[in-house]
Structure formats: structure tokens, C-alpha cells
Amino acid sequence: VTCRPDWIKKRQQEVVGFLESNRIEFEEIDITMLEDQRRWMYHNIPQEKQPAKGNPLPPQMFNNDAYCGVRFLPIYV
């Protein structure tokens, strides 16, 4: 399985669009340039939610330190 950067960006835009349209406060963190944030994300995703191979891909959602999940399907509001 390969994952293209444009696929990841599209999923991120879907999540951000959903949060903005529902006026849900959020902080978007770009882990591509922040090694500490990337390690934090990898470490704080529960083991049962980790992919079988490789690292978890964005977008991943947290409420403070609580893992909320990942969104791979289109969001319809």
C-alpha cells in the first residue's frame, strides 16, 4: 500500500473543513517539521489503533492528550 501526499492533504482538508463549519475550536499541528510533535503523536496513539506496518498517517485527532481517532472516509455534513 502506498500513500500519496495529496491523499493525506485531502483528508486533512476534510477534517479541518468539518471542524470549521461546525465552529469546533481546534489546533492544527504540522508534524512534518516538528519531530517532537511527530514522536508525541506516534507515542500517544493506542497500540490497538497502530497500523500493522509503518507509522500512523495524519490526520490523527486528539482532545488534549486523549486519542479521538483518525478520519479516512469523506465527511458529509
Automatic annotation (TrEMBL):
Membrane-crossing residue ranges in chain numbering: none
Locations listed in the record: Nucleus
UniProt cross-references to InterPro entries, sorted A to Z: Glut_rich_SH3-bd (IPR006993), SH3BGR (IPR051033), Thioredoxin-like_sf (IPR036249)
Keyword rRNA-binding: no
Gene Ontology CC: one annotated term: cytoplasm
Keyword Glycoprotein in annotation: no
Annotated keywords: Nucleus, SH3-binding
Membership in a protein family: Belongs to the SH3BGR family.
Descriptive protein name: SH3 domain-binding glutamic acid-rich-like protein
Organism (species): Scyliorhinus torazame
